[in-house]
Amino acid sequence: MKNKILVWLCVFVSLSFAEVENPLKTAMDLVNESKTLYSLKIVDKPFPVPDRSQLINFPVYREKKGDSYDVKAIKATGEAKKLLDKAENYFGSHQYAKARDAYTLALQEDPKLYSAITYIGQTYGIERNWDKAELWYKKAIEANYVDFLAHWLLADVYKVKGQKEKALEEISIAKVLNRNNPRLEALRKEIYGLNGLNIKNWTFNPQVSIARDSATGNVNMQSDSIWTYYAFVQAAWLYEPYYKEKAKKVLMPQTMYRECLMGLLPFMENKSLKESVEVLRRLDKALNADKLSEFVFYEILLLDYPTASFQLDKKQIEGLKDYLIWANQK
Questions:
Q1: Which of 43, 89, 156, 212 is deepest in the core (most CB within 10 A)?
Q2: pTM of this prediction?
């Protein structure tokens, strides 16, 4: 592609970034020299935030396998399923003591039915026996740290008991483990408000649309003016051979997102623009605090790949929990 927009952007990038290996300059040069025709249309109407309310996680447990985790759905079978169904029937008819007995028997039949531990805690919570509910939620978390429901309900217990700081910790972990759950988000807002934090559910939403014409192979992009470089870098990652080879050697898609974000840097030099555009403010804050990795993983990656949180170890999950709390300080 050799049109005026691209030539101007390449010249600007060359002047703004002197480093030979600058990822933004590399992407722009590759697009400029590509055999593929790239076109860009600047749009004024914003792209809405995608509805991800159905992109939620479900109960799982995991087992360590080398450097990663083997994640498995929690699913009762055989006699354990019969006992679990019996417990659920008792639960539904408000016979909570009998439900606990049946959950306990189901666990004895299948010790990996970790969600039953959480459900026992839930029966105590419904009975407003907060101390026993807390005890069982902690047992569930100890047995299966990625049990987002146990963290979620434990946060609610702490909120009821007036322990707002502990509630903040647990609801933030739950949010990392189930990024898009709308019901969980409602409690997060409440607890964050109690702790004097920003309750807004800000969502990273690139004002970019990229599509390849199946007939011609041309790549058509749309973006607003702030996201033009981001669009070109992402398009290069998606369609240029150089990046297909690079993707085999680096951590994907985090590396792609980090390089795409470089496309926002030229606009962050404009102080008034940075103050008026929230994504620029938040990115600037993350860069100044050396939290770009956390920004990329929580704000971008988990939105579309929420199950990626199940591959994080406890320390990494708690690191994202700390980031989430920090990012929402007023």
A1: 156
A2: 0.91
